[in-house]
Amino acid sequence: MSSARRRLLVLATIVLAAVVVQTMASASAPREYKWELPQGFPRPNVPKGNPMSDAKVAVGRRLFYDVRLSGNGTQSCGSCHRQELAFTDGKAQAVGSTGQVHPRGAQSLINVVYNSTLTWANPALVSLERQMEVPLFSADPVEMGVTDANRDEVLRRITKDRWYKARFAKAFPGSKRPISWTTIIRSIAAFQRSLVSADSRYDRYLQGKVKLTPAEQRGMELFMGERAECHHCHGSFIFNDQVTYKGSPKERPLFHNTGLYNLGGTGAFPEPNRGVFELSSDPKDMGAFKAPSLRNVAVTAPYMHDGSVPTLEAAVEHYAGGGRVIADGPNAGDGRANPYKDPLISQIELGPGDKADLVAFLKALTDRKVLTDKRFSDPFATRGTGGR
Amino acid sequence: MKHLGRSSALALGIALVAAAPAAAKDQKVDIRFTAVAGDQPVACGTPIEGLGTTAQPAQLQDLRFFVSEVKLITRAGKAVPVKLGANSTYRVTRGGIGVTLIDLENGTGSCAVDGTPGMNAVVRGTAPAGRYVGARWTVGVPFALNHTDAPATPAPLNSAAMAWSWQGGRKFTKIELTDPGGAAGTWKAKTFFVHLGSAGCTGNPATGQTVSCTAPNRPAIRLKKFNPAKQQVAVDVKAMVAGSDVTVNGGNAPGCMSAPTDPECAGVFAAFGLKGTQTVFKAIGR
């Protein structure tokens, strides 16, 4: 072989190798996940160990609605987080797969990716992956009811399924064991992070697409103003006061006692619903719960951590009064005088018209699109079998 | 031939010298645990007599706990770390930190609720050869391993029963006593659970990691006189509840689930030596 030909051959080999490598790279590198963020929504934080991908979100969506993921095969995540109710369940307190009643109500999952802490009152739960161990494995109260005794069997229901077999491999490329509890949890977390939406009348108003009604307009001014003071705890872009996103300032997550109870005048809340106090035992945390996002609040009744406030009107009434008075029974007490109550919860002078205006504004925060968005819907329901 | 013989003897000698340090330096260590109530053995399905301030009979429902940072004490008072054996269902070493799950329930009888058939009574490992007169260990999982993702970590840290998920950690102890009469029994609260775990934890929303816990609740145990070769460690459930009435729940969780304000935690914390001297663990003959 002449040296020129040899050189040419070497060059050709290099070019070929480069092409092969590049083809391989573009085939195996997952397409970057494309967030569909509403106007004004910042880029979400995503844990390094669980990057978003369309394949993973698709797997997570199916798992979210798959009843086989509960110990006795009766419940899915979607059983207590129903899309048409903004991923709540309409109950005062959630009911687990074995019928055990949870002390607290199921919370909305829309825009959950922006929440600093998860669940009603827990400064320790700051990732969806870790939070999910609670509903899956908790024994008190039982939610999904996965135990050491049935976890292998539950996992087998998923590993044996052909749809999952094919899709998990795509969602976790290069993984030796694509289907495991870890990848199940990561997939569901990815689906939950994808639940970003803000297309309410209020959002359209901000974009100049619609006009608010006079009542909604007055309600908004009350909400944002210093008379009703709602915005102190519900002032973020998702209408709460605990948000995290790329570049968000480091702040201690806030929890508030809003004067719902005051057992025997001691400031106590009924067990096991004493808020952050349950974990910290610090008196200042008595009755301290998270201010939930008020987006879609009109479809998430009943309200508060224990569902003890039935309607939006009653919720507004509660805050207008600066707390709740319970005349008799085991929970009797004047919540307005709770010594641990957040100082921001004070009596507000609101006329009946003002209250109606506030309710009108709160109703303008409902995003109808997200309640039926196909991307977030139950894939089992389309086959008429029902995923729940 | 003579030469050859001598040189191979020399080679053998060198080989022996080379191998000797490893062989002679370490000795096997087995620290064995057994469950008792006073001087009586404790087992699933056998009622335990005379527990608590009201001397009540009780059933065992669970008896598991994590042990870490195990050290043997020399006569000179020096604490020498025990290096755990190979990873197994009950033993794991990660990043130089070793944890053993002691499991003294067998999932039968009164322990069928969420017990497991397998048992493990021993912390197994090696320590430099020597004479040891005492032992020290921590009940619980060190912070670096405690707040790890349970399903993603190897056994025994992946146990669902031992998960303390709302604090993003593990239950350090899962020792559970119940009314021997069941639902028809006479206890006002039907169960007395002793779940020690780190409490008051907070996380960093930006990273998703647990940052700190205000109450670590990891009892540090020290047996001044303990000979691992001839003795075992008794876990005394009677001593554990000596300061509590096991039949009532004065507030918070039934029994003690680590809340400082739980009235039943005062006696339990004292027994584990979280305040004062521990009384739960003692050396007894094998």
Number of strands of chain B: 20
Q: How would you name the CATH homologous superfamily of the largest domain in chain A? A: Cytochrome c-like domain
What characteristic shape of chain A results from the CA principal axes?
globular
Runs of chain B in which pLDDT lies below 50 for 5 or more consecutive residues are 1-23
Largest sheet of chain B: 10 strands, mixed
Strand order of the largest sheet of chain A: 1-2
CATH architecture descriptor name of the largest domain in chain A: Orthogonal Bundle
The number of helical elements of chain B comes to: 4
The assigned structural class of chain B equals mainly beta
Low-pLDDT sequence parts of chain A: 19-27, 384-388
Helix content of chain B: 10-25%
CATH fold-level assignment of the largest domain in chain A: Cytochrome Bc1 Complex, Chain D, domain 2
Secondary-structure map:
The complex is a heterodimer of chains A (388) and B (286).
Chain A (H helix, E strand, L loop, with lengths): L2 H26 L25 H11 L12 H4 L47 H4 L1 H5 L13 H9 L2 H10 L9 H13 L7 H6 L7 H11 L52 H4 L31 H9 L4 E2 L6 E2 L17 H12 L4 H5 L16
Antiparallel strand pairs in A: 1-2
Helix pairs in contact in A: 2-7, 2-8, 10-13, 12-13
Chain B lengths: L1 H24 E12 L2 E2 L6 E4 L4 E19 L4 E3 L1 E2 L6 E4 L2 E7 L18 E7 L3 E8 L3 H4 L16 E2 L4 E2 L2 E6 L12 E4 L4 E6 L4 E7 L4 E4 L7 E6 H4 L14 E2 L6 H9 L9 E5 L1
What does this structure look like?
The complex is a heterodimer of chains A (388) and B (286). In chain A, strands 1-2 form a two-stranded antiparallel sheet. Chain A has helices at 3-28, 54-64, 77-80, 128-131, 133-137, 151-159, 162-171, 181-193, 201-206, 214-224, 277-280, 312-320, 352-363, 368-372; strands at 325-326, 333-334. By secondary structure, chain A is mainly α. Chain A folds into 2 domains: 54-194, Orthogonal Bundle (Cytochrome Bc1 Complex, Chain D, domain 2); 201-365, Cytochrome Bc1 Complex, Chain D, domain 2, CATH 1.10.760.10. Chain A starts with a helix and ends in a 16-residue tail after the last helix. With 286 residues, chain B is mostly beta strands. Chain B has one domain. Helix content of chain B is 14%, strand content 39%. Chain B is globular, with a radius of gyration of 22 Å. In chain B, 47% of the residues are buried. Chain A binds chain B through residues 45, 47, 115-117, 119, 122-127, 129-130, 133-134, 137-139, 146-149, 151, 180-182, 185, 242, 244, 248, 250, 253, 271-272, 278-282, and chain B through 114, 116, 149-152, 159-161, 163, 165-168, 199-210, 213-215, 251-253, 259-261.
